[in-house]
Amino acid sequence: MRFRLTPRETSFYDMFAASADNIVTGSKLLMELLGAETSARAEISERMRAAEHAGDDATHAIFHQLNSSFITPFDREDIYRLASSLDDIMDFMEEAVDLVVLYQVEELPKGVEQQIEVLARAAELTAEAMPNLRTMANLTEYWIEVNRLENQADQIHRKLLAHLFNGKYDAIEVLKLKQIVDVLEEAADAFEHVANTVETIAVKES
């Protein structure tokens, strides 16, 4: 790691960790949605919306700190990209839950639980990785595993699409369910964007 003669603003590390912890909360709400009765989904959606608002607040705090800090722990554009990608994850997870409620989906197709399990694991890994930005230590396995999980999510997504188009569902139901599984796939992509940004930061700081 490069030796620095200038002090650095270190509050970013805590804010990134808080943002990632909030994503874990969101992933747990997704898991809760899977086993919930239809009547309980609206309440889960409200809690997810609150978590998404908390994520927005965390992102705005990072941007405010970025705009008011003369010296940052790493490149400004990487801080912005990392904060934005973390925010995207929460947005996609909240959107998925909201769509399930709005579309009054009776039963999610088989395979969605695998999508959500992948997201939950990626959330745990991301939350574990964020504190390591302080030292840039033990991060390689993190981005390798998140990239592997994203590849797994791609495979699950393709199988889900094949299932949706096998003639079992009517056209309207296909449109509803496809939008939900597509948004969950976007969440997996956003986790990979976070991991790729962390890798970029680590390479620059090495």
Automatic annotation (TrEMBL):
From what superkingdom does this record's organism come? Bacteria
Mind telling me which InterPro entries this protein's record contains? PhoU-like_sf (IPR038078), Put_Phosphate_transp_reg (IPR018445), UPF0111_domain (IPR052912)
Query: Would you identify the family this protein belongs to, as annotated?
Result: Belongs to the UPF0111 family.
Protein name per its UniProtKB record: Phosphate transport regulator
Give the organism, scientific name: Streptomyces pini
